[in-house]
Structures are given as C-alpha cells and as structure tokens.
Task: inverse folding
C-alpha cells in the first residue's frame, strides 16, 4: 500500500492529538486488517500509528478478511468474505484455511459482522443480518443459532439484532448494534436476547467491528464516512461497561479503514523517541496551480508513524512552517508555507543564496519526540 501522508484532520486537531494526555488505563494492543488487505498492529496509546504491516496472503483472489478473534491459546483466526475460517499469522500476513470448505455462505465486508471465539475455544459464533451460525472449531461443522433480539422491557424490545459483538470474560456477548445505535450485552451467557447498556454517541457506519480488551472494555472500529469521495478511515472508540464511560468518539481517527479487529492484550507503554533521518540540501521555491508559493526539498524518513512539524528559521525568526502526518513508517516530503511578509524575506534571501536553519520536530503517536536542526540553502 502506498505511504499515507494525508493531512485528514485540521492542523489544530492534529496538534491536539499529539499533545493530549495519555489515558489512565493501560495500553491495549490490537491486531487489525485494513480495507486494503494489510494485517496491522496498533496500540491504544499510539493510534492512529500502524506497525507490523504485512499484506494478507493465502486467500483466493477477491477474498478478504472481514472478522478477527483470538482463541484462548492466542491463535488469531479470521473470518473471510467467502465464509472460510483461517489461521492468520500477524507477523507475516499468511492466512491458512482451517477447513477444506467454507463454514458459512459469503459474508459482506460492508455489513454488521460478529465473529467471536467462545471463551473455551471450542466454537466460534458468526452473526450477520439474517444469519446466526455456531462453528465447531475442531471439525468446521456449523449449526444454526437462535439469532439475537432485544429483550422484553428494553428500549429496543423485539428488534432483531445485527451486531458487532465479542465474548466478555463472563461468557456473554457484548458490543455494538449499529441498527439500534446501542451498546448491548446478552442478558445471560447463551441467551437469545440482548439488553441495552448505553446509546452510541457517534454515527456507526459499516464496517463496524468490536473486540473486548483485557480489562473488559469494548473497543469499536467504525467507518468514519460512507461518502465515496472521502478517503477510507475508521474511528476507534473505547467503552467501559463498568463505568459507562465512552472515549475516543471525537478521535482517534485512523488514516485507514479497519475491516476486522482483535484485542491482543496489554502492552508496555511506548516511551521510545522516534528515529528520523533527513535528506536534501536546498530548499527551492515553487508555485502550485492556485498560485500559492511554497518551499520544498527537505525529506524526513521516520521509523514509525506520527507528525512532523518543521520551521524555517531566517535570522533567528520563524519564516515558514510545514506539517505532515504519517500513519506508518516512511518518508515525508515537506512543503513549507510562508505569509506574505516572510515569503518576500525568503525570496530576497534566496536571491542572495542565503542559508537557513530548518528546525524539525518528529512526534510519534505516543507523544515521544525527536528534535534536530538542519542547515539548508535557499534557491529560487
């Protein structure tokens, strides 16, 4: 997948994302599959940064992963769009089919999907609109389940659920029902009814997927927009059923769309500053089609995603600024803008072949930073 360096949020929002305080709860690791077919890893304290990126292989042409969950032994299983169950190696992207034939009919990626491995690891539940299947993970045999409806007395009583659920530690399914815009949980383990826990304070757009973290919280990835002219993105939201607290509905916004997610358990906080190298000796003035001038020529390569904020220092004063967002490790080609006053000053300095200092701050998504200066020559 080509490197994503889209600035999809406003500069102010991006800056806020970098300096926002860390959540009090421990970081959770998540494995996900993107709409472009990459297996990725992310941490709740450093999203939207993606690491460990590998293209999914081993599936038939046109087949994709639409659901993920882990067995009690840690094996990562994927439900595919063809109705297969595969063992997925997150460190290579290799998917290996568990059974010689599909366990259910085709599954649409852009529809509600529950793919949940039972706490004992013996079976998996597949729920989509009009389908409820329990799959024996030893044989691949599938039996029809009773479906899920909202219980009598619930605000959504009688409504047929088409949810994104995962198993909680007590054996009940818990997650999000997009049709009712509600967080919901089974009334009892094995029950055919759900009860509403809370309303969902954001728009759930398919694909919406849920996973239960090691602390019992529910992490939900949901499509940010269904407009065809918008780049595919997901928002990542945490719901704590113990307190009812919902966080992340107004960001974190990922720079990719997630079609499947599975919690990996707690991970160590990221305290390591990002590594960065730069190339380029000359900042050259260019003009875009709108007639706006900018200065380019500095490339910054980082070992992880984050934000790069850089400024041109002329005579000790900030004369130009650049801001670039990277979802993953890669190289950013910086473009510096300047206002009318400092644009004129930079042109005069370039005509005199002056040198400037570029001050670069590389922030990762865990709020670690790497700061350095680079001397460059101006050119018209």
Result:
């Amino acid at each position: 997948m080509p490197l994503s360096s889209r600035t999809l949020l406003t500069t102010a929002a991006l800056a806020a994302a970098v300096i926002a305080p860390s959540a009090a709860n421990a970081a959770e690791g998540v494995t996900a599959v993107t709409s472009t077919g990459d297996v990725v890893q992310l941490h709740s304290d450093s999203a939207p940064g993606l690491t460990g990126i590998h293209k999914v292989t081993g599936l038939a042409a046109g087949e994709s992963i639409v659901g993920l969950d882990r067995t009690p032994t840690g094996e990562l299983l994927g439900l595919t769009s063809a109705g297969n169950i595969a063992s997925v190696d997150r460190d290579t992207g290799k998917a290996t089919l568990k059974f010689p034939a599909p366990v259910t009919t085709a599954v649409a990626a852009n529809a509600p999907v529950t793919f949940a491995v039972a706490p004992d690891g013996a079976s998996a539940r597949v729920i989509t609109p009009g389908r409820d299947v329990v799959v024996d993970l030893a044989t691949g045999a599938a039996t029809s389940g009773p479906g899920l409806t909202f219980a009598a007395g619930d605000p959504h009583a009688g409504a047929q659920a088409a949810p994104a659920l995962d198993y909680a530690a007590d054996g009940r399914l818990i997650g999000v029902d997009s049709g009712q815009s509600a967080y919901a949980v089974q009334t009892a383990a094995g029950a055919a009814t759900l009860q509403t826990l809370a309303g969902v304070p954001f728009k759930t757009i398919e694909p919406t997927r849920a996973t239960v973290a090691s602390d019992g919280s529910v992490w939900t990835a949901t499509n940010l927009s269904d407009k065809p002219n918008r780049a595919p993105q997901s928002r990542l939201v945490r719901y704590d059923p113990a307190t009812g607290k919902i966080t992340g509905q107004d960001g974190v916004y990922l720079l990719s769309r997630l079609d499947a997610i599975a919690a990996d358990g707690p991970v160590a906080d990221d305290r390591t500053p990002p590594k960065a190298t730069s190339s380029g000796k000359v900042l050259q003035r260019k003009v875009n089609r709108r007639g706006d001038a900018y200065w380019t020529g500095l490339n910054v390569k980082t070992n992880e995603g984050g934000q790069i904020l850089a400024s041109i220092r002329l005579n000790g004063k900030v004369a130009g600024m650049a801001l670039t967002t990277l979802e993953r490790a890669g190289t950013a080609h910086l473009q510096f803008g300047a206002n009318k006053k400092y644009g004129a000053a930079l042109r005069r300095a370039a005509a005199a072949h002056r040198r400037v200092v570029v001050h670069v701050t590389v922030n990762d998504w865990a709020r670690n930073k790497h700061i350095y200066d680079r001397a460059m020559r101006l050119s018209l």
Notes: Helices lie at 11-19, 340-351.
